[in-house]
Amino acid sequence: MEKLIVSTVGKTYPIYIKSGLFITLPEIFKEKYYGKKIALVSDSNVYSLYGECLNAELTEAGFSVVPIVFKAGETQKNFTTLEYIYSVLADNYFTRSDMVSALGGGVTGDIAGLAAATFLRGMGFVQIPTTLLAMVDSSIGGKVAVDLPQGKNLVGAFYQPDAVYTDPKLLKTLTDSQFADGMAELLKHGFIRNINLYNILTDIKLQQLSVSSDSLSDVRAKLEPEMDHIIKESCKIKRDIVQLDEKDNGVRQLLNFGHTIGHAIEKVQNYNGLTHGQAISIGMVLITRLTEVMNLTITGEAKKIENALKIFKLPVSMPSIDIKALIEAIKIDKKARSDKITISYINKIGNGKLLEFDINDMEEKIYGLISNNTFTS
Fold this sequence. Notes:
- The chain has helices spanning 25-33, 44-60, 79-91, 106-118, 132-138, 176-193, 195-201, 204-211, 217-223, 227-244, 259-268, 276-293, 301-311, 323-331, 359-372, and strands spanning 2-7, 12-17, 38-43, 65-70, 99-104, 124-129, 143-148, 151-158, 163-166, 336-337, 340-348, 351-358.
- By secondary structure, it is an alpha/beta fold.
- It has two domains: 2-172, Rossmann fold (3-Layer(aba) Sandwich); 175-372, Dehydroquinate synthase-like, alpha domain (Up-down Bundle), CATH 1.20.1090.10.
- The strands form three sheets. It has a seven-stranded mixed sheet with strand order 1-2-9-6-5-3-4, sandwiched between helices.
- The longest helix has 18 residues, at 176-193.
């Protein structure tokens, strides 16, 4: 079993990574958490796949398990769902010594984590990610949040889990689109920090397999034997950055590469258009095109990013969208400060940088990029 240790100011916790780990969780939980009541938080899709089984096995192992299941989808990451979780916790007399267990993707981890952070001012919390995106990104680092109508993740906290249990075998039930969403975040880690990870994910054989099929089945089959290692390497990148800057005031903002534009796209589409990974994919390409024109990025890097993302059938160009609404969404991004916003970019593959942008200047450049495919530097 692969094990990474995350050490932050407030907490040190493990990330366990092993194919087949899921079926051993009752035994692990019995050793580590026996006597705790468990709130098993999951969306309706994941609960039917994995939650019912885990609930039964944990109950058989002697735990009192209370399932908390909500409708699947980003649109459910709101105060209504959060209040529902609070109500179930209160109705079942959960105490601070009990535990919230998030079984699912990023939405589940975010909202379950915020509930754990705030109910009774803090409860035990573990993550069991079931999507690639959650395994390499949202389950690590302690960011928990809900969305507002005005934007994504605007109400939240930093609340580190007690542990993360990652089983790459669970990825088999993902659709190609869901798998690609996670690959967008994996590639992002390579783009900003690790050229070796980028090289693994852009191997010529993967490129050939991708071109030869409309699906990702052959690409996924090629990567499957390596996924434990690939996920570990990706997690190490995020772990290392989080340890340097837990509260997102400095270097951690490197992890937002592509996210400023990506989150704005999601917001303008009311979270019913492109997926998170698709939006981030476009965001990474656009910001790199911009910084190439500004002579901050080596010419040709945007094309490399495009080619890498295309291996996993991710989009690389802006959909038809209200550009003015996009700019307004960027302005209320949580990374904005007054009339400035900090942007994560690369000067070359594997070397991420931060740049403070004047929002009005950025507005002009984005208009130029999308409308005329040109920029003023």
